[in-house]
Amino acid sequence: MSKLDDHRRAIADILAYLASHGLAGTVLGPDHVVSADSPKMPSDDFVDIVRWLENEGVIRVPGRPSLGNGWFPKVQLTAVGLQILGLESPTSKGQSIETTLAEPTSPETRTKIGEFIGSVLGGFFNSQK
Q1: Short-list 72, 85, 57, CA closest to 26
Q2: Helical H runs in the chain?
Q3: Helix 107-127, helix 3-19: angle, nearest 10
Q4: 58 and 67 in contact (C-beta within 8 Å)?
């Protein structure tokens, strides 16, 4: 498995973790996205991924991070992050944003996140040629 695959999985885990907190700002660190499928990644890599998500407009990081250990305070999803998670119009499904975000993230949602990240990265690399 490539490093890019590891990063794509970490992105999906980060977005799933943030979705579990709704629209509230929450502390985000490498320990929050550790699972059997995703071992803890080095702090430097985690910081790079969070910064990339922030620069792409997927998340908001208003607090001052502790870059030494990779912890970010008050991280929250943006409207772009909600769209990636398929929540661009949750009220049209008869659900509130809070109800939709409270649902566990399904494997299908993680696949959609991975596909989105792949398309963004593909577009970026094609634009660099």
Answers
A1: 72
A2: 3-19, 43-55, 79-84, 97-102, 107-127
A3: 130
A4: no
How high is the pLDDT of residue 119? 63
Q: Do residues 49 and 7 touch, judged by C-beta distance below 8 A?
A: yes
Q: Does residue 3 sit in helix, strand or coil?
A: helix
Give the model's confidence band at 106: pLDDT under 50 very low, under 70 low, under 90 confident, else very high.
low
**Could you tell me the two tokens for 101?**
């975000």
Q: What is the pLDDT of residue 15?
A: 92
How many C-beta atoms lie closer than 10 Å to residue 94's C-beta?
7
Q: How far apart are the first and last CA of the chain?
A: 25
Matching residue, tokens 């997927």: 58
Cβ atoms 16, 27 nearer than 8 A = no
Residue type, 98: E
Whole-model pTM over 0.85 = no
| Owner of token pair 């949602």 | 109
Provide the H-helix boundaries in 20-106.
43-55, 79-84, 97-102
